[in-house]
């Protein structure tokens, strides 16, 4: 079978599997990030601009009022999602399908990259006759098919393919970078690599971490040409990053690539100051610290926090390190990572330049991400899923490279090959079978959104523990609840909040915030300025209207 015909077969199969995945997948957006992407995209689609309507309280330090420009989220995926919303209308299904479209495109790039690496391997064998050329062509097609199918049935990749998250788009960008690298690019190609690395920062805010891996790939591919390649990569990166910095400055007055003030970046890596002046307190939890309400100037710098809390930081780092290492090994199957790692180390000098370049790019990216996510508050499979296709492609490449080096007479046991491929595919088949089209969560979310939309005016601004949920399903502007009830008035005045809603669904852990528990989970009288609006409704939560008295100097309430 020729490579073009194999590619067409894989494309048809991938399209069918993608449609099945969307059909069997969840009926609603399950991830808070996905809801925030969708809400930003809906605002773009209807001409409101890129607005953050599920704000963290610290954003009020930049300017009063809500909503504010969306700076916590990279905007490339919401922009693409907005385009699909304009055609099909905003919905959970369209969000899922948009992510799935990138999953489909990724499978095609996996074929192209795997076939290119197999072609490099076969060319190094110097086939001199027609039969040898025919065999080489079949092996190229086989490598593409094997890699493509393994990717399509990767369990975690399938999970996030229909998530409404930006991971599939980010994975596609990474595969574009790799596809250029393995094609032995000239200077223009390396400039394109740099442009894509810079563009990846618009897709996910850790995209810039791909810069060093891209440089290492250039060195592994051709050490003699690498200095010029590195220069071109840097030149390419500069354009998208400059555009991002200018956009963020226009939005919040800060030239930043993270969309947040530099001091606030303390919060982004999980270190924040306490609400009542407990400076330098280190939080290792995932939720309550995000409700920080302090001006950026009051937050110590990252180095000072690390110096004052090195022991706590070390405990946090080592605690996340093992989880993140496990997450890496399960992205794309431990079999893929194991064989790719062992064979790459054993045959580094014998492998072709493109395979070495892919190995350098993948392993350095994995190492950087493990350190980054262990340092910060995030760990989990989701953040390493973009590495899955790289591990699969590299594993297939080193398998075929090893097979060629052993000669045409050395054929691996067929049963062993089938067993290995089955072990990598079966988890994905199980994932598909676990998807349920009869998910009743969809009806619950719809009822939840309709109930809030009925109880809360259209232009209301809501303080809530689940802002992403309320913003997307009720179409209301939201701000995180502050750290304690005593801060509600200050946050309410600065944000212009008119309502407070405690859903009990997510966001505030009462054990971490006992003051909230006493106010919201007891029958005590509401604090001054809180007017019960229906009490506690199991379909919504505890809803209050906020109506604070004017300041003593006569200033307006809001």
Please give a structural write-up.
- The protein has 21 helices and eight strands.
- The protein has helices at 3-24, 32-45, 76-88, 92-123, 130-152, 155-161, 167-181, 187-200, 211-221, 226-252, 265-268, 302-308, 310-329, 334-346, 353-375, 388-406, 414-434, 441-455, 467-474, 488-495, 514-520; strands spanning 51-52, 54-55, 68-69, 461-464, 477-480, 499-502, 530-537, 541-546.
- The strands form two sheets. It has a six-stranded mixed beta sheet.
- The longest helix has 32 residues, at 92-123.
- It is elongated and about 85 Å long.
- The model is unreliable at 127-131, 261-299 and 553-558 (pLDDT under 50).
Percent range for β-strand residues: 5-15%
What overall form do the CA principal axes indicate?
elongated
How many separate helices?
21
Q: Name the strands of the widest sheet in spatial order.
A: 2-5-4-6-8-7
Q: Layout of helices and strands, plus pairs?
A:
Layout: H1 3-24, H2 32-45, E1 51-52, E2 54-55, E3 68-69, H3 76-88, H4 92-123, H5 130-152, H6 155-161, H7 167-181, H8 187-200, H9 211-221, H10 226-252, H11 265-268, H12 302-308, H13 310-329, H14 334-346, H15 353-375, H16 388-406, H17 414-434, H18 441-455, E4 461-464, H19 467-474, E5 477-480, H20 488-495, E6 499-502, H21 514-520, E7 530-537, E8 541-546
Parallel strand pairs: 2-5, 4-5, 4-6
Antiparallel strand pairs: 1-3, 6-8, 7-8
């Amino acid at each position: 079978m020729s490579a073009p015909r194999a590619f067409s077969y894989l494309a048809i199969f991938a399209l069918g599997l993608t449609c099945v995945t969307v059909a069997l997948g969840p009926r609603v957006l399950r991830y808070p990030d996905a809801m925030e992407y969708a809400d930003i995209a809906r605002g773009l689609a209807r001409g409101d601009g890129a607005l953050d309507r599920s704000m963290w309280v610290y954003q009020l330090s930049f300017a009063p009022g809500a909503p504010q420009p969306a700076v916590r989220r990279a905007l490339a995926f919401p922009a693409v999602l907005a385009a699909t919303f304009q055609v099909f209308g905003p919905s959970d299904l369209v969000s899922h399908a948009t992510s799935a479209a990138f999953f489909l495109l990724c499978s095609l790039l996996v074929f192209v990259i795997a076939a290119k690496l197999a072609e490099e391997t076969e060319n190094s064998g110097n086939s001199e006759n027609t039969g040898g050329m025919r065999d080489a062509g079949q092996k190229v097609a086989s490598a593409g098919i094997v890699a493509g199918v393994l990717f399509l049935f990767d369990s975690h990749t399938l999970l996030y393919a229909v998530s409404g998250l930006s991971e599939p788009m980010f994975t596609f960008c990474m595969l574009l970078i790799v596809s250029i690298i393995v094609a032995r690019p000239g200077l223009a190609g390396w400039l394109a690599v740099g442009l894509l690395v810079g563009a990846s920062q618009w897709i996910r805010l850790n995209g810039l971490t791909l810069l060093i891996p891209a440089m290492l790939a250039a060195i592994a591919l051709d050490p003699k040409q690498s200095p010029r390649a590195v220069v071109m990569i840097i030149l390419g990166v500069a354009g998208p990053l400059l555009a991002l910095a200018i956009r963020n400055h226009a939005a919040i007055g800060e030239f930043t690539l993270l969309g947040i003030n530099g001091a606030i970046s303390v919060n982004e890596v999980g270190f924040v100051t306490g609400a009542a002046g407990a400076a330098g307190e280190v939080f290792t939890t995932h939720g309550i610290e995000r409700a920080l309400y302090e001006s950026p100037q009051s937050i110590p710098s990252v180095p000072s926090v690390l110096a004052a809390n090195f022991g706590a930081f070390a405990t946090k780092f080592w605690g996340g390190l093992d989880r993140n290492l496990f997450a890496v090994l399960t992205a794309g199957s431990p079999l893929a990572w194991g064989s790719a790692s062992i064979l790459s180390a054993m045959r580094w000098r014998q492998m072709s330049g493109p395979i070495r370049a892919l190995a350098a790019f993948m392993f350095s990216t994995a190492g950087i991400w493990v350190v980054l996510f262990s340092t910060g508050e995030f760990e989990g499979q989701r953040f390493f899923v973009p590495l899955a296709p790289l591990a699969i492609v590299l594993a297939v490449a080193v398998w075929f490279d090893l097979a060629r080096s052993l000669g045409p007479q050395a054929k691996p046991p067929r049963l062993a090959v089938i067993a290995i491929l089955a072990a990598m595919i079966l988890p994905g088949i199980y994932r598909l079978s676990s998807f349920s089209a009869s998910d009743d969560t969809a009806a619950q979310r719809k009822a939840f959104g309709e109930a809030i939309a009925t109880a809360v005016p259209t232009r209301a601004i809501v303080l809530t523990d689940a802002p992403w949920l309320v913003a997307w399903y009720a179409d209301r502007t939201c701000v995180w609840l502050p750290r304690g009830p005593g801060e509600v008035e200050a946050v309410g005045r600065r944000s212009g909040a008119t309502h407070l809603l405690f859903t009990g669904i997510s966001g505030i852990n009462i054990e971490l915030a006992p003051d909230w528990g006493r106010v919201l989970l007891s029958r005590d009288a509401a604090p001054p300025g809180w007017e019960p609006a229906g009490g506690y409704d199991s379909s919504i939560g505890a809803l209050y209207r906020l109506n604070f008295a004017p300041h003593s100097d006569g200033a307006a309430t809001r």
